[in-house]
Amino acid sequence: MRSWAGVLAGKLVFVTICCFPVPIAFAVAYTAWREGEDWAWIALVSGLAGAALIVGVAVKAARGDLPRITRKDLAGATPLPHRDGTFVLWAPRSGAGPADAELVRADVLEAALVRYSPEGEATFTTCTGDHTPDEFTPLIRLRLRVHGPAGPFETTGEWRVPSVCLSAVTAGRLAVLAARTGGDVVPQWPRSTLLAGTRSCRVTGLDGRTDDVTGRPVRLLRQMRIARAAGGVELEGDTIDLRRLDADTAARYTALAERDRASPEARAPVAEPGEASRWIVDRLPGEKGAFGTVSRRWWRRGGVLVRGRFLKMRCTDTFQDHGPVLDTILRVQPADGGPPFDAARQLTVPMNYLAVLHRTRDVVLYAAPDGGSYIVDWARTCLLAGTGAATVVAPDGRQLAVTERPGVLWALMNLLASHGVSVPGPVLDLRGHGMNAVAEKVLDVLRGGGPP
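Request: output the structure for the sequence above.
Response:
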């Protein structure tokens, strides 16, 4: 667990080394003063200006590398309140496709990462006006079964997939444009996240009644076709309000809603069968899942873990190697049990987490002992999201899998944190040194299936 003070100290040292003339200016000023030179003050002022610049750059770099979330980041000024279960995702537009193309569904049969090789290292790279530069957009080979206008067919190709849309590949459901005569298909990545269930979607009818259609791919695809024929439909957050549409488009949406009520569509599974053949999460950059480390100072002062949930993500034109920098709104549940608050914060979100965004938008944060600030713990978050396997090794040597059991994982993380026990990997071995105090409690959690 990295502390803010530790990250800031590291950045100060790094920036000072990069700006080595600044400490030299202080040395020159001192030497000139000792020798009675009149120009000593010039070197001193130059050194002070350089020192101020170093501090400013270091603070900005530390804030970007380990961003703290506080109540100063309140998102209360946003025009639309976000309800529980809302997830709004603004992704770059996809290509228009052939003139005679129709919007259809495609199932992802296989996926493989072909190339992702940025050169930005750990620094921030801004590509002005470009939200999907090739350098920061993974190239993925996909084998698709396309439910085309003339019947289903299979095709294989390589496509650049925006990082925020990777979950559509993992889920296995895409929206694509396919010509009636066959040929190339053009994936529609923002629409695919909707079809995959990553984005939430609600429809408010002319009577003011709101239906949640998230995870209903048949209706969603029909809605997309209506919107495409109308030249686009404006959303308020994740909601289509038919009262704001023209009469013809609203009537088509209303007929679709009545048809769905007469014969309701069951929710689709979180992921289509055969997820293993599409699992590229292990090859994507990002924090590796872990039960988490515990800072002794943080633990002794009463620090705790809390949970949050992403309500909104919007792409920017800034990237780091392990993920894009996104404008986010995060709902945080305070450690004192008080009402949650929504924070608007720019965060670098790891690509391996983005690839499982259809499963969960939950995050783990460690709260400052005074409850005044929160920092996203990506190692714990990725383990909770299921980006990798999580295992508990019992005192008798039995290996107990706890992958994709978020209730159990959350209870174990809190148990370990409350006892000051660090487990910097995805394997919790109860035979290890210092585990006697928690071994029986861990087994109690496993027997109970999660927290009380």
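The chain has a mean pLDDT of 88.
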